Amino acid sequence: TRAKAILPTVRAGAIGAHFNTLDREAMLAHPALDFVIRSEYEFACKELGAGAPLAQIKGLTWRDELGRIIQNERRPFEQDLDRFAFPARSLVRNTLYTRPDTGAPQTTIVTNRGCPFTCIYCLANQVAGTKNRYRSVANVIAEIQDCVDNFGIRDFLFRSELFTQNKRWATELCEAIRDSNLQIRWA
């Protein structure tokens, strides 16, 4: 609302797990929202940034020029997580994100997404799907290397709904971290 008061042509959007089921309710409750992104948001954000017509962006719920709320087709979960770009850490003050016990810079790396289990207290199925999808070990190592080389980050929090489901993949990743000699700490 404040941004639109200053610059009425600005588009206001939001992402989050609750939009997977409460997208219309959120749009009704917050008239300043122009759109919300349901499900995985990486490609929808890229398309928004490139100026794609809102009607063509899968996974988008948006408000048209008459104020009607339109819910586009759902975007399927991306199966090849290596297609996602690394986060644009150059746009962030990385020193603000630190380990609470040491104060050293820390970042989060998403290693895989999804969970086949249906625990009633967890949103993993809605947010990331029911299939555990893994990034390649080489891709995870490349992101770690980028963090070490370009940002001096050596502490990592691996974000995953179910990191150890694929024992072979988890072992390969651990061995690759060890063999890379990057001297990092991770949890």
Which helices and strands, and how do they pair?
Layout lengths: L1 H5 L6 E3 L3 H11 L5 E3 L4 H8 L10 E4 L5 E3 L34 E5 L1 E2 L10 H5 L4 E2 L2 H15 L3 E5 L7 H14 L4 E2 L1
Parallel strand pairs: 1-2, 5-8, 8-9
Antiparallel strand pairs: 2-3, 3-4, 6-7
Descriptive report:
By secondary structure, the protein is an alpha/beta fold. The chain contains six helices and nine strands, in the order αβαβαββββαβαβαβ. The protein has helices at residues 2-6, 19-29, 42-49, 124-128, 137-151, 167-180, and strands at residues 13-15, 35-37, 60-63, 69-71, 106-110, 112-113, 133-134, 155-159, 185-186. The radius of gyration is 19 Å and the shape is globular. The termini are far apart.
What is the string of helix and strand elements? HEHEHEEEEHEHEHE
List the total number of helices. Answer: 6
**What is the first-to-last residue Cα distance?**
38 Å
**Beta content:** 15-25%
How many strands? 9
Radius of gyration: 19 Å
Task: Give start-end ranges of low-pLDDT stretches.
Answer: none
Strand order, sheet with most strands = 1-2-3-4
Structural class: alpha/beta
Helix content: 25-40%
